[in-house]
Write a structure and sequence with these properties.
- The protein is an alpha+beta fold and about 450 residues long.
- The chain has 2 domains: about 15-195, no CATH class; about 235-305 and about 315-395 and about 405-455, Heat Shock Protein 90, CATH 3.30.565.
- About 60% of the residues lie in helices and about 10% in strands.
- It is built from 12 helices and 8 strands.
- It has helices at about 1-5, 15-35, 65-90, 100-115, 120-140, 155-170, 175-190, 195-270, 275-305, 320-330, 350-370, 410-420, and strands at about 45, 60-65, 335-340, 375-380, 385-390, 420-425, 435-440, 455.
- A hairpin with a 2-residue loop joins strand 4 (about 375-380) and strand 5 (about 385-390).
- Helix 8 packs antiparallel against helix 9.
- The protein is rod-shaped, with a radius of gyration of 43 Å.
- It starts with a helix and ends with a strand.
Length: about 450
């Protein structure tokens, strides 16, 4: 039975019921279920130092300017209503003998102002019966000759319009529509006259003006939220870029030296199985490579600590340090030949570091994936570009199994792309591998290109 009950489709209500619910929604929300938005940040007034001797007698140190204005307005409306009703009652021959009713009517006209800032919809729900009560009293006292036709004193009009404005600012559109329609019906019942149309226009204007303020504030909040979200995204992107830069620096520094150490450690027992002197030399070379790696790592960490007030002043490697890089690779078993063409400019800046890191990573890859293979490096200065090509032959023996998923090629592309260059990598027709980078140089005068020179 349970399964049968669950399989039955949900029956939709008939369209007259749905239409009735949709039509009654504004009125239900205005009278019962509707709620207003919470009040926003309001300006406050701090007691000046000249009044500091009064702070012992006052329960607060700051005064809410909006609430203070509401209280002052309510007192002004109350006093004005008392004066207006008493004067009209006296001129009409005291039709309202009980003076307390006049005081109660004045208080009813002013009371909604005290609720308007914190609870605007509740203020309107109080103002509507207060309007009925004040109109009833005013109708009795406005019987003298020359009395105004409309039984709406200025005080109650000001209060009601201010409350409607607050409803438009702090309540949803359908709530404001319900409030306006109920107000128009109440005014038509209380005083059906040609002035009713003017009252409908005034109340609609107060609600529309308040709703326009609501829409503008919502748009401003959305702009602020979008700006905050954009700033958060920018900060997150900066963090990711910084993490990528740190990872790239550490990879470039550590990967090459660790590859050289691994190759030397593998080759040492083969090169000197029974010769302690050769073995000591190999171990000394491994130690030297490890010290170089440690020095490079300290240099990078010093640069990363610049923001902590401990900058590292050691220069970054460049093309002038290629000899040491080639020497360490040759010591690890790579047969590296270097050719250059063109004349380098006086300064290279960050381009020199990029070329150094690309060559370092290319030699590390050749050590790992093509041990013992011949490597050819060509460095060319061609007009406004610097071109680097590193090509290795196929490996003489199958390389040992190593974990995949390195970030070397990605780091090289990021480095070259940062200077507007291009990087191409891929296997050669002979079965080897080639890395080619092109980097734009700064616009500096260069002498004529000399003949290519081969470095042993």
């Amino acid at each position: 039975m349970a399964g049968t009950a669950e399989s039955q489709p949900v029956r939709r209500r008939a369209w007259p019921v749905r239409a009735g619910a949709w039509l009654s929604r504004p009125f239900t929300a205005a009278l019962v279920t509707g709620v207003a938005d919470p009040p926003g940040r309001r300006p406050s007034w701090r007691q000046p130092d000249a009044f500091r001797h009064l702070r012992h007698y006052l329960p607060f140190a700051r005064v809410d300017i909006v609430v203070l204005g509401e209280i002052i307005t309510a007192l002004a409306v109350f006093s004005g209503m008392i004066s207006t009703l008493n004067d009209a009652n006296d001129r009409a021959g005291n039709p309202v003998a009980d003076g307390e009713l006049l005081i109660l009517a004045a208080a009813a006209a002013a009371a909604p102002l005290l609720l308007r800032e914190l609870w605007p919809l509740a203020a309107w729900r109080v103002a509507l019966p207060a309007l009925v009560f004040v109109v009833a009293i005013t109708t009795q006292v406005n019987t003298y000759e020359g009395a105004p036709d409309a039984p709406y004193p200025a005080g109650v009009v000001i209060t009601y319009l201010l409350v409607l404005y607050a409803v438009g600012v702090r309540c949803a559109r359908h709530v404001s529509v319900g409030v306006w329609v109920i107000t128009a019906i109440a005014m038509l019942i209380l005083h059906p006259s040609p002035s009713w149309f003017l009252g409908v226009i005034m109340t609609a204007a107060a609600l529309i003006f308040g709703y326009n303020v609501r829409v503008r504030r919502q748009a401003q909040r959305q702009v602020v939220e979008e700006e905050r979200r954009t700033e958060d995204e920018r900060s997150a992107r900066a963090v990711l870029q910084e993490r990528s830069r740190i990872a790239r620096e550490l990879h470039d520094v550590v990967a090459h030296h660790m590859s050289v150490i691994a190759i030397q450690a593998e080759a040492a027992p083969i090169k000197a199985p029974d010769d302690p002197d050769v073995l000591k030399a190999e171990l000394a070379s491994i130690r030297g490579t490890a010290l170089e790696a440690l020095t490079e790592l300290r240099r990078v960490l010093g640069v990363l600590r610049e923001g902590d007030g401990a900058p590292e002043t050691a220069p970054q490697p460049g093309l002038s340090d290629l000899a040491e890089l080639l020497a360490s690779s040759r010591a690890a078993g790579l047969a590296v030949t270097v050719t250059t063409s063109g004349r380098p400019p006086p300064t290279l800046g960050g381009v020199g570091l990029t070329v150094y890191r690309v060559l370092q990573e290319s030699l590390s890859n050749a050590l790992r994936h093509a041990p013992g293979a011949a490597v050819r490096v060509h460095l060319a200065y061609q007009g406004a570009d610097l071109r680097l090509r590193v090509e290795n032959d196929p490996p003489r023996t199958a390389p040992p199994a190593r974990p995949r998923g390195g970030q070397g090629l990605t780091g090289m592309r990021e480095r070259v792309g940062a200077y507007g260059g291009t990087l191409t990598t891929g296997p050669t027709a002979a079965g080897g591998y080639a890395v080619a980078a092109t980097l734009p140089l700064e616009s500096v005068p260069t002498p004529p290109d000399p003949a290519p020179v081969e470095q042993p």
